[in-house]
Predict the structure of site-specific DNA-methyltransferase (adenine-specific).
Amino acid sequence: MSAYFRSSPQYGHQGRGDVNLYKLFTELCVNLLREGGVCGTVIPSGIYSDLGTKDLRELLFQKTQITGLFCFENRKAIFEGVDSRFKFVILTFEKAGHTQAFPAAFMRHDVEELEYFPQQTGLSISVDLVRRLSPDSLSVMEFKSETDVQIAQTMLEFPLLGEKREDTWNLSLTNEFHMTNDSHLFKTSPGPGRLPLYEGKMIWHFDSRYAEPRYWVDEKEARKAILGRGGQDYGQTLDYQRYRFGCRSITGTTNERTMVCSVIPKQVFCGNSLQVSVHDNNELDEQETVFLNAVMSSYCVDYSLRQRVATQMNMFFIYQTPVPRLTASDPRFMPIVTRAARLICTTPEFDELARAVGLKGYQEGATDPAERARLRAELDAMVAHLYGLTEEEFRHILSTFPLVKEEVKAAALEEFRRQANTPLPALPLSTGSGGKKAVVRTPREVKTTTPPKPEPNPATPIDRLEPDEIMCAIRQVFQAQGPLERDEAIKAVARELGYNRTGPRIQEVLDAALRTAVRRGILGNQGGALRLLVRSVEGYQREFLKEQFLSALGGRQWTEREEAIRAFARWMGFARTGRAIEETARSLINGLLREGRLQAEGSRVRRV
DNA sequence: TAATCGAATAATGGGGCCGA
DNA sequence: TCGGCCCCATTATTCGATTA
């Protein structure tokens, strides 16, 4: 049966995964429609989230105009006998043209709401945004408000975790042992030569002993299984002998937390309900593992994943999460690492890890519940700042965790506010009253080829700074701080550029730069205060961007495309030319070429 | 052949409701 | 007030399938 469907030309968009009636049916609907015909169908939510429906989404985006994606949860037993957490979609589309944006509503409980959809409920999601958020799967995130879209775009300033980078660490996940396929290896009692088998339920945030193990594995047998039949065991260090990042693969969006992860001790094996990081190519060192764990444990990342995941924390979801991949060369790195390490390293098995991040030993781990709560609030706030979120946005994120205690959320928010006023201490470790100060090791040499952020040289006179460098500083400041009066703004930008005093010359230059920023649509003037107009490049009108692109290009000289894109990004104040900017700029170039406002020769372009 | 994803099904324990 | 029962949240297990 499945062979028939897989080979049928009329079912050419079924993609990977199981043959599934609703998938077949959806494609059939598209095929049967005449041009201009419309279709409405009730199907499982997998249509917008699963990897196996990627091709179908592509088909719907390209061959139809989607007129509605209304998703409801079966909480109120709209379909009897179906699990309450199962989600369905009422999908409507017209076979005409293609979809640029579509109205969507998620996690509704009452079908009556359909009456007001999409006029009064729901929001518009652009296909372009879907492509940027989920380049690998085209899965649609479950946005419930414009704030969600905004936050997603802000977070997208950082590279997706699955993107392999030369200049920083990378994450690759694996399932070590399969609970079914490898069950012959599992013993039900500990013994000499046996190591515990960790499962998902055994961990919680910063806690790798949340429950006791059920199974043990003979180390020799396990090594043999890991190395496979061909692999030689000459005593080499395998991943289980390192500290690893591990996360639960069984989860749910209505659970207290959706992303549950921790650093796993050495000398344990992991079942497939606990996916772990791969280290055999030095992808991640110990400090970076701790850093990754801190970021992944945060409400920010969890919130992002909750909008994608159903019940399985699949790897492709994790790989499509934007994560700031800081290294020890960044001043914000160690404050996060040391705090997270104090939460993780509370037992002797983490002594080595504690030392690797600069603590004296596991004795410096935080065991007092109040202190642990404080450290967690600090970490969550730090990560929220790292992502460049506003207080409103962070508040919104916290509000999407109804099962988390109010006081925990309040502490995180309060800490967020405090950190907004007081920059983070470089050496964080105040271990409470009477506690000893920890020593932080000098950051190790990082294997970065390019420094993550070019530090402005404070010695450079302001007149000699590149104008675009000032634009980037302006965007940076407003991204971090929100609306500012003109005078405050000048001071803040000056500080960002490394000037401690704002003399008359600096004031003059920066005042002019702020006006330029308004002209370029970076800032807006609202009631006397300046504020960031648009956080990321896709918030702009396309026509406006085309003008800006041409302006950034300057005269009629030939410019390499790459260089032109970079110049455009700086012109708009974006210090990093991320994927979003890159894609937008390429599309602008194509548009301008079509309109004859730009000409191309090989890889170079110039104004006409 | 290992890695990975997807779907169906199930066990368990707590909380709350309800009738005796 | 108490016991039974159902719902919900949580945490899986198992099987089927494709793809690199």
In short: Residues 2, 16-19, 52, 84-85, 179-180, 199-201, 248, 250-252, 254-256, 273, 403 of chain A lie near DNA strand C (CB under 10 Å from a C1'). The domain at 537-607 of chain A is CATH 1.10.10 (Arc Repressor Mutant, subunit A). Chain A has four domains: 2-144, 173-421, 462-532, 537-607. The two ends of chain A are 58 Å apart (CA to CA).
